[in-house]
């Protein structure tokens, strides 16, 4: 009987241990020889020492997104008036030069320029007596359509023979007089604009303001007005 008791006790102990392991497994407890769980595998995969921070590269200033967020330069609209035709064209050319050199948009529009006239005349010489004497000679030669200029100024006592809107008509009379030996006759283009020309300018505020201020400083008779100033 003693010989059977020892194997029986061993078998009983083995069954108890086996039942204990089965119970623990049913309760979700991990055995020492089981594979590690999901959390352990994730822990090995993360490898904290290999983690690197990735930063978003800066957006270049020339990209559309940067251009959209960049501040817009102010816009200045300025009118410079009281100019002669030559001065207006000078300011217009200066604006075009600035636009090309700085690669920016600057518009310039000239207005108030009148069409020139063409004056056929004999310049003053010898004062009033000289003008009267020449007028008598021309009248005897059949040139009766003439006027002695009596208004004070550089052309006082000149003899006007015709004022034309067309250069062609003025040139025709001039050639006829030269053929009739009126050798001191002159053909002059007259600027009828006076100081009535003006230039309307539009462009970046700081650049345009500096350009107009510089022009005004050398043309004291010119007048400036800023018609709009939008941000």
UniProtKB/TrEMBL annotation:
Any one Gene Ontology molecular-function term assigned to this protein's record: peptidoglycan binding
Alphabetical keyword list: Membrane, Transmembrane, Transmembrane helix
Pfam families: SPOR
Residues that span the membrane, as ranges: 6-27
Superkingdom classification of source: Bacteria
Span of domain SPOR: 112-191
InterPro entries referenced in this protein's UniProt entry, alphabetically: SPOR-like_dom
The keyword Plastid appears for this protein: no
Entries under PROSITE patterns matching the protein: SPOR
Official protein name in the record: SPOR domain-containing protein
